[in-house]
Write a structure and sequence with these properties.
Elements (H helix, E strand, L loop, with lengths): L25 E3 L9 E8 L1 H4 L5 E8 L1 E3 L4 E12 L18 E10 L7 E11 L4 E9 L7 E5 L7 E6 L13
Antiparallel strand pairs: 1-9, 2-8, 2-10, 3-7, 4-9, 5-6, 5-8
Length: 180
């Protein structure tokens, strides 16, 4: 009995990394406020907050929270950008320049009553995060209806890195807020 010798090369194994950014110290309505039909939030995650020591491919995002009222379907867009900015650029009367950012997710998403993984998105386009850069995230949401009581876990200390605005007809008319 004779057999051939075969060389097999196994490619490097790569696993998903789940990064927890911050800890729950408060709750707020900021990311996708169900009370309004239109929502937009802008967050700057600093290098220090992210804690990554090398480049990463980001493939999704998870926000914890609670929903105590009815389910709500939102059409959501998520944009990411490597940036040197440390504070959000959102101002009243001015649209955010998302055309210079990478659209990583767009689709309808149901915020469900009773869920704790409130917003769990797998990106349709992976994003290349560059170490030593801050990360800008813009989340836009729209809905045909309004629903109360959607609360996200937030870190109150990060108010200088976050802005949001809500309106029922035109986001540019809304005043950006930083408080929860």
């Amino acid at each position: 009995v004779q057999s051939e010798k075969v060389n097999v090369t196994i490619s490097e194994e790569k696993g998903d990394i789940v990064a927890t950014i911050g800890t729950k110290s408060n709750t707020g309505l900021q990311l996708l406020n169900g009370v309004y039909k239109l929502n937009e939030s802008e967050t700057i995650y600093t290098v220090e907050k992210l804690g990554f020591t090398d480049n990463k491919t980001l493939t999704g995002v998870l926000f914890k929270g609670t929903k105590t009222s009815d389910d709500q379907v939102k059409h959501i867009k998520v944009y990411l950008q490597n940036t040197e900015d440390v504070t959000p650029t959102m101002t009243k009367g001015v649209e955010l320049p998302v055309e210079s950012m990478t659209l990583v997710y767009e689709g309808d998403y149901t915020l469900k009553k009773g869920e704790t993984d409130l917003l769990d998105l797998t990106f349709t386009t992976p994003f290349s995060y560059q170490k030593d850069m801050n990360l800008r995230m813009v989340i836009q949401g729209s809905s045909d209806n309004t629903v109360y009581s959607t609360y996200y876990e937030v870190e109150k200390a990060d108010q200088t890195h976050f802005k949001y605005r809500n309106h029922d007809t035109d986001l540019s008319l809304a005043t950006p807020y930083t408080t929860y």
